[in-house]
## 1
Amino acid sequence: MMEPKVLIGREQIATRVAEMGAQITRDFAGRSIIFLSDLARHVHLDSTFDFIGVSSYGNRPSPSEELKSGWDSTGEVRLTKDVDQAMKGKNVILVEDILDTGLTLTYLKKLLLAHQPAAFKIAALLDKPTRRKMPIQGDYVGFTIPDEFVVGYGLDYAERYRGLPDVCVLPREG
Ligand code: IMP
């Protein structure tokens, strides 16, 4: 047998995968994908992944207004991408990057519970409990943070700063 010859070296693969990752990060609307991918590597269970997309109705203020006073959505959340897999009888963990007013997760929880999973849990990297409008809690919370607008590690401000490796505070003006 002849020796296999390297076609694409590991360094070239690593570089290209990093480039692809950066592109997916830019293109993918869901913010939680970075947290989810890191988390998934540390959960040693037989698991599958599914993605759900939501957007909120209401007049979202300009990014600078949003930064100044936060954004209080009307609570009307709209599904932009439904799940693909059946969840009945499964153990479901909803992974979110940040739990803020709780409006989004309250909507999603109701929606997902209708699929009758065996268990339903919420994992959120960050939690701003002082902003809460709905009585909902994360079952697995990474860090409890004060009411600051944060960016990085997948979180954006007007689509910027998602790629920062750290969670950073974006100072509010005035
Ligand atoms: P909730 O419905 O108010 O809990 O909204 C949660 C969503 O608001 C998150 O998934 C984020 O998309 C967004 N969000 C809340 N706080 C921040 C923040 O500090 N930085 C970036 N996005 C945020």
Note: The radius of gyration is 19 Å.
## 2
Amino acid sequence: MRLSLRFILPLLIALAAIAYGVVPMVDGLTLRWSTRDLDSRSSMIATTLQDPLAELIEKGNREKIFLYFDKITQDERLFALGYCPAGPGGLIATRTFPASLNCESLAAGRHPQAKLLTSVSGLLHVSSKEVLIGGRSAGWLILVHDMSFVQRRSEETRRYVFYFFIGMGAIVSLITVIIAQLSWRGWNHGMRALLRGEGLVRPMERFVQPELRPLARDLRTLINEIESEHRTRDVSMVTWTPDSLRRILHEELKGDDVIVVSNREPYIHVSKDGRLEVHRPASGLVTALEPVMRACSGVWIAHGSGSGDQEAVDAQDRVAVPPENPAYQLRRVWLTKEEEAGYYYGFSNEGLWPLCHIAHVRPTFRTRDWEHYVAVNRKFAEVVKEEAKTDDPIVLVQDYHFALLPRMIRELLPRATVISFWHIPWPNSEAISICPWRMELLDGMLGSSILGFHTQSHCNNFLDTVDRLLEARVDREALTVTYRREPSSIHRYPISIAWPPPEEIHCDPVPACRAKIRRRYHLAEDQRVGIGVDRLDYTKGILERFKAVERLLEAEPSWIGRFTFLQIAAPSRSSIEQYQDFELRVRALEGRINARFGKGDWLPILLKIEHYEPEAVHEHYRAAEFCYVSSLHDGMNLVAKEFVASRNDERGVLILSQFAGASRELPEALIVNPYDIDQCAAAMHLALTMPQAEQRARMRLMRGLIQEFNVYRWAGKMLLDAAHMRMRGRLTQYKGDIPGEAPPSGEVIP
Ligand code: F6P
């Protein structure tokens, strides 16, 4: 009914307005037409009376003229007649002749045009005609017509117009209501069919207009996702938890073997003064995967890079972690200095890292590095085979260090399900074409059963690259690539963090963290603090961030002395020249800005180039007024999510680069272009002055999203997809079964 009223009310208002305008117009028209009628009627009567009247005038008999007039005015419309003689004698007129008319008053207006007169008897039409006798004027005949019939006609017309519009309004409303109800029912029906999952395409097409079909498809996908999640989760469970993952492993994967491979290890043993210390690296990959492995209890294979790593492992190079409460095995792989230099520092971080990040640092590709990259990938493949308890394990291959590994695993363990996740952006095909070994990389990656990226645009770039460079079948609807007769699903799995954040358990409340951090850096109690937490990497926009702080102090000098930006920068890849240069530039800029604005003990920027353990970072997040993530390009950036998760007080503001994948999920952050220094300075000012209610509203929305889309969901979705694949036996069924599939070939010349 409400839907119908929405159409009917405006319609009725419009009709009433039209009627209001039409009535006076109809009145005017009726009056004009009637006056014209009476003009010609008067002229006709005057002509008819001309001769008999002339005769009576010649006889000079006033009485007879009066009787003659009286007789003629029996006609109901002719209201009165009068005669004004040219000479003496005065007016001869019927009794009904209006008193306001006399020969003197009429003499002034004697002309053939009529005039309208309002008298006690109503509206009158008065016209005059000259009486001629023998060609000479003998006076004027005055004819007065009653026009009350015009008023009657007018009233009647008004009534008709009123009824006409009422009728029209009713008919149009009825038609509108019927059409609205039919359309609504159609839409409803379509949606219900959609929600019931009934023959999606056909029935929907009947009800949904072509332009709405993509929306319907997305809706169906979303519903499917939610349904499949609900099937796997306990109905009472609102959020994905470690238990959800365990349930998938036991119920959907029947306890299958799970192996994770990454370059970075989750725990690093460092030998210090004859003792072993355990460090946790600053790594988004580790932040995300560690809680997943705690839940899944598999084996994590990684490069043993710590000075105490060899000492900590058993005879099979394994160590149970986490050290305080072991839940899974860490299998360490040893690399020589040359291998590390070529595979990790060289090909991965001087080649692929700048290639995939649009941060204006040139990639460097060396044949020697490539050879190490191939050799190390092979070494890890062998270790995967060693660690596999069955011939069809589920192997989760992490990141750009292992682009070749999926194909190598497939060769050693053809029945394995390989899920690869690319943690950094995938650029467009032109950029990838720079790499001399692009074909080998793509070939290696397409050994994966599932290949995941953070965002849909990274998936699309990957599909475009394959389409352009390889002879492969790319299905953009199903998001699959079939290459060497093997299908790979290309999917978006936005990575996240554990919820609730594990650091929260032992962390002080927010006010205590605020006080502690201010004490630690000798800041006044009411000092405002902004924070940045990154690896010291040129992709993170740290220089641009410092320039924005400088701009803030220029534009809003009231913050001088009252605001401090605290930058935690974990040393990273420091044997690479570009990283060394970058550190020098960061230090120089910090020095210049501090020298320009610093006063006494107060400095605008506190730069800490050192490693902080996750609990300490958590405390810093809780102490800050805002956190600024200014990546020039980033796959996801988990600092953004960690900051939001740490703020259980629902305070604090996140300033987030539009070039970080996280900006697709956290639109309630202040989204900025990190290259636009003025805009970023304004965002900092806004963050420092944002009312609490607004901070809370934004934080709530972001926290809700991270809680729901946490890392258990990220891993769970991939494992579920793998489980469905295994159930359908797709991998083995497809292997070698597709006739006419093109054999692997060389590069397609663009
Ligand atoms: O962001 C890409 C990435 O490889 C992450 O997966 C990881 O957290 C981070 O870089 C750390 O890099 P590294 O292992 O070289 O210190």
Note: The longest strand covers residues 122-133.
